[in-house]
């Protein structure tokens, strides 16, 4: 019988830190059990893990935000998907970092995790971003809470692609949703902000918010478009990576078509398994040969797709 | 105390074949053939039931296709599958890698579809049996409409039986009927070698903000721990009223997560059990359940699991 080399697995991880970044945003740092090393050492940005939260307790009643008190009562049976925000593999450990937003019963339970707790995760799952090393310019477009994989990608590209220019566009509803990026607010002008996560790598960052509370007022994809018009990068030497709400990804795909710049997007779907067993996470794609539609699986074929293979609805 | 594990026999007979233990995958929750490879040794399963296969490829329903409920989930995948031709070309050859018996679940919109698919698949020695899905609640035509009408169940079972040669014929029953034993009896009278129950319950989840159903298909099938006590009851009912008198084995399932759950079904009258929704959170749970069954047998001094079948007092 042929020998089967696993590409993913079920592993225990111990929590090193679970830090509130302000409001509903958290960063959790996990150390994987040692036998996870072989599969995790080749994990790339854009891939994800499925975390089992079913055995975690709820926070105390008074710590549950009122808008979630009904949802909190629900028993959880399915794992939840989370992208890598960073992975550090060393001689004797694998450290995985995840940025998450508290939105419902599962993430509410996650916020109670503390250093020393153990959780089960399945990973690494899906296909991540493909880094085109021969490009001159990489444009990263991050929408609010959808940003974690781009934090990972920017760090990796900075160290791997020394000659590539990396430009980041970040958009959010308002300043409070920029918490994932290690936000630094100017003392005098409150809308003037810097994002530590990109700053530490010396990456040029453009910020916009829907309400103008940080950076420019407006949509991140409009800001991207203006930049492309003004700077006219060579389309062949440029690539866009986008991650965020579906509407923003659709707009990024449109920019990609208009400027003939290739673009990868990271999509989200409701996932029952995350491992290709259930077919719940369908993404409608275009067959370029005959124009027909077919479905790919977000968890297995994605979550990262080329924007021109997706049928945007 | 008790009996040593190596002296406990978990094997059971399903028609003319023997399963090394009662654990089987539930259709639609474990992919086509090898999707669980990264997590378990498939050879440790008693049997493998594939995703539903139809005569033509099916794209399936729009998303969202799943939603989690309290201790359960709804799915409306819509029988998305690659179609019988591609299944024969790409998936059937993979079955040869394993010693586990494979049962292919088949579905259709008209009776001729079932017969055509069954006829094609019956030619392959890698396939031990077929499971007739006459119980899918998520397609507009076919599926459940067959499973709720005794005249159609009769016709479909008899027609398929004619073309499948020596293959084992399993008929999978829907719980969405007034009296499940009526349907069970018809299937057995037409030559079903085993019955499998239950498929999912038609159900709905409403988003109260938008006042729309969450699933694009509006309704879906409820599975998971939420349905287990009903499934146990129905297995026991069909065992007493149909299976035991006819000497036909039952494959029981619905919400099984643990060895205790599986043993409950066996006591109720099931010869084998299927693991569906539980594999999403824990893809290795079927193999763990087999181990857990041995512990139970040891504790109760049972040298063969068959002593437990239908032993309800
Ligand atoms: C590939 C992938 C990567 C992800 N990475 C991250 C990450 O790095 N950080 C992070 O905070 N979150 C991430 N998510 C989203 C995260 O999985 C959900 O926020 C989480 O499952 C919510 O669980 P809950 O029980 O707390 O809330 P739920 O009650 O399950 O959901 C809260 C709200 O979000 C909606 N929702 C939940 N899951 C999805 C989904 N998959 N697609 C669209 N809407 C959804 C629900 O309808 C509901 O309105 C990712 C999702 C996917 C598919
Ligand atoms: C996502 C999903 C897809 C399913 N697809 C099929 C299918 O294609 N054919 C079928 O006969 N049953 C299908 N089922 C039903 C299961 O095989 C099983 O009968 C049911 O889910 C109850 O068992 P469980 O609670 O262990 O999941 C599906 C169930 C789920 C959750
Ligand atoms: S989530 Fe199950 S196949 Fe993608």
How does this model look, in words?
The complex is a heterodimer of chains A (313) and B (313). Chain A is α/β, with parallel strands linked by helices and 313 residues long. Chain A has three domains: 117 residues, Translation factors (Elongation Factor Tu (Ef-tu), domain 3, Beta Barrel); 123 residues, Rossmann fold; 47 residues, Dihydroorotate dehydrogenase, electron transfer subunit (Dihydroorotate dehydrogenase B (pyrk subunit), domain 3), CATH 2.10.240. Chain A contains six helices and 18 strands. In chain A, strands 4-3-7-1-2-6-5 form a seven-stranded antiparallel beta sheet. In chain A, strands 13-12-9-8-14-15-18 form a seven-stranded mixed beta sheet, with helices on both faces. The longest helix of chain A has 14 residues. Chain A starts with 8 loop residues before the first strand and ends in a 7-residue tail after the last strand. The model of chain A has no long low-confidence stretch (mean pLDDT 91). By secondary structure, chain B is α/β, with parallel strands linked by helices. Chain B has a single domain, classed as TIM Barrel, CATH 3.20.20. Chain B contains nine helices and 16 strands. In chain B, the strands form four sheets. Chain B has an eight-stranded parallel beta sheet. A four-stranded antiparallel beta sheet of chain B has the order 5-6-14-11, with no helix packed on it. Chain B has a two-stranded antiparallel ribbon with strand order 1-2. Chain B is globular. The mean pLDDT of chain B is 94. At the A-B interface, strand 17 of A face strand 5, strand 6 and helix 8 of B. The structure holds flavin-adenine dinucleotide, flavin mononucleotide (FMN) and FE2/S2 (inorganic) cluster. The site of flavin-adenine dinucleotide (FAD) has 22 residues of chain A, from strand 4, strand 6 and helix 2.
């Amino acid at each position: 019988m042929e020998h089967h080399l696993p590409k993913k697995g079920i592993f225990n991880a111990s929590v090193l830190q679970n830090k509130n970044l302000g409001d509903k945003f958290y960063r959790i740092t996990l150390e994987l059990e040692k036998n996870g090393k072989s599969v995790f050492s080749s994990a790339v940005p854009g891939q994800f893990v499925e975390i089992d939260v079913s055995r975690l307790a709820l926070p105390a009643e008074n710590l549950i935000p009122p808008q979630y008190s009904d949802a909190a009562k629900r028993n959880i049976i399915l794992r939840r998907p989370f992208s890598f925000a960073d992975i550090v593999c060393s001689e004797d450990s694998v450290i995985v970092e995840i940025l998450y937003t508290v939105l419902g019963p599962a993430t509410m339970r996650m916020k109670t995790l503390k250093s020393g707790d153990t959780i089960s995760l399945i990973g690494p799952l899906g296909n991540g971003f493909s880094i085109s090393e021969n490009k001159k310019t990489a444009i990263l477009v991050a929408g609010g809470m959808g940003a974690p994989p781009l934090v990972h990608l920017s760090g990796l590209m900075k160290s791997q692609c020394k000659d590539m220019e990396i430009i980041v566009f970040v958009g959010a509803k308002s300043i409070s949703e920029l918490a994932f990026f290690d936000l630094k607010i100017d003392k005098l002008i409150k809308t003037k902000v810097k994002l530590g996560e990109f700053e530490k790598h010396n990456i040029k960052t453009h910020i916009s918010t829907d309400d103008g509370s940080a950076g420019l007022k407006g949509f991140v994809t409009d800001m991207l478009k203006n930049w492309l018009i003004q700077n006219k990068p060579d389309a062949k030497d440029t690539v866009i990576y986008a991650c965020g709400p579906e509407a923003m990804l659709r707009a990024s795909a449109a920019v990609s078509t208009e400027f003939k710049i290739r673009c990868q997007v990271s999509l989200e779907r409701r996932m029952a398994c995350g491992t290709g067993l259930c077919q719940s996470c369908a993404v409608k794609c275009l067959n370029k040969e005959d124009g027909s539609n077919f479905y790919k699986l977000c968890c297995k074929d994605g979550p990262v797709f080329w924007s021109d293979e997706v049928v945007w609805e | 105390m008790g009996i040593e594990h190596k002296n406990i026999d978990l094997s059971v007979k399903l028609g003319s074949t023997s399963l090394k233990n009662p654990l089987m995958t539930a259709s639609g929750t474990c992919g086509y053939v090898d999707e669980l490879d990264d997590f378990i040794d498939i050879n440790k399963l008693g049997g493998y039931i594939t995703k539903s296969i139809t005569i033509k490829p099916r794209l399936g329903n729009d998303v969202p296709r799943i939603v989690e409920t309290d201790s359960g989930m709804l799915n409306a995948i819509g029988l998305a599958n690659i179609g019988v031709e591609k299944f024969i070309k790409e998936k059937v050859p993979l079955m040869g890698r394993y010693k586990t018996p494979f049962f292919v679940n088949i579905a259709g919109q008209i009776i001729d579809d079932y017969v055509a698919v069954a006829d094609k698949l019956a030619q392959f020695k890698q396939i031990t049996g077929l499971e007739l899905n006459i119980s899918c609640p998520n397609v507009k035509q076919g599926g459940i409409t067959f499973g709720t009408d005794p005249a159609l169940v009769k016709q479909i079972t008899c027609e398929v039986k004619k073309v499948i040669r020596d293959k084992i014929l399993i008929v999978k029953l829907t719980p969405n009927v007034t009296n499940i034993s009526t349907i069970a009896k018809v299937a057995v009278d037409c030559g079903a070698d085993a019955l499998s129950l239950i498929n999912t319950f038609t159900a709905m989840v409403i988003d109260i903000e938008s006042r729309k159903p969450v699933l694009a298909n509006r309704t879906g099938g409820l599975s998971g721990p939420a349905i287990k006590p009903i499934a146990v009851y129905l297995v026991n009912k069909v065992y007493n009223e149909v299976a035991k008198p006819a000497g036909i084995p039952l494959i029981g399932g619905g919400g099984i997560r643990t060895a205790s759950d599986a043993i409950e079904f066996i006591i109720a009258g099931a010869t084998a059990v299927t693991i569906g929704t539980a594999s999403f959170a824990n893809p290795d749970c079927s193999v763990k359940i087999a181990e857990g069954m041995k512990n139970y047998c040891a504790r109760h001094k049972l040298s063969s699991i068959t002593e437990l079948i239908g032993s309800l007092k």
